[in-house]
Amino acid sequence: MSIISEIKQPIKQEMIAFEKEFKDSLKSKVPLLDRIMHYIIKRKGKQMRPMFVFLTARMFGEINDKSYRAASLIELLHTATLVHDDVVDESNIRRGFFSINALWKNKIAVLVGDFLLSKGLLLSVENKDFDLLEIVSSAVKDMSEGELLQIEKARRLDIEEKIYFDIIRKKTAVLISSCCSCGAISMNQNNNIIQKMKIFGEKVGIAFQIKDDLFDYTQSTLIGKPTGIDIREQKMTLPLIFTLNTVTPKIKNKIINVIKNHNKNPEKVEEIIDLVIKSGGVDYAKKSMMMYQKQALEILLGFPKNKYRDSLEKLVNYVIERKK
Description:
Layout lengths: L2 H6 L3 H14 L5 H12 L5 H12 L5 H24 L4 E2 L2 E2 L1 H27 L3 H27 L4 H25 L5 H24 L14 H4 L5 H9 L2 H13 L4 H13 L2 H20 L6 H15 L3
Helix pairs in contact: 2-5, 4-5, 4-8, 4-15, 5-6, 5-7, 5-8, 7-8, 8-9, 9-14, 9-15, 11-14, 14-15
């Protein structure tokens, strides 16, 4: 059994029911939309976000209809942001498949993203889940701001660690944080517990993004060497920021010159990867990631032990141990 299957085990039935509900929520009377929705469902990922919703909810009791709506709302809005992201990034591949914009062009991809957003909003409004809607709408606002902040900073390459954490909190952590707080809200938990689960999710999300940063500097199982994708895309990640802050001005200028002018040159990118590893940037990022993991687990282990909490603990550990 894979680690993901093992983590899902206590909520296996809930995940099966969710998949059906999510599929139903995507139905449309427009044949083109229906075809695209079918394509989206077929290439779904690991579904980590619904897992965070259900495992959080199950820690506090039996799952109800609101828990399913919370998971559907987050997955709808998350899918919408992915479709729009591929347009923004001019990306033709998503999870090993062609992206929506690659197959149906940008105009249709933007409209599909809008359709998914509106489905999420309607699901909440029709069921008067205004508390869930407030959290998830705020998350989408943060994600947009984080993306724009990253684009702005990538142009000047002047990012500091404080701004980096602000970007990843908004871009990545806020959605996992929303999953955990919405899971607790759906079970009518008090504000203190909702806040604890929100912070727990944020810590996990930050660790998740740092792990993604590290893939740039660690060997890919597919190609046998570091990917360097973030360097090629001029993204400022934690290992790189640490390196720029610790090397001599001469080496710093050399790194910035490569990122700005030679980021498509594989040999130059490899040189930067080597510099980042030797300067301790990778080790620093790993320590930071493990600190956030530890803080997340400290919050989680403050709740009564049950199989759902155990699965959440495994999910936190999976986030920093995954290979892709």
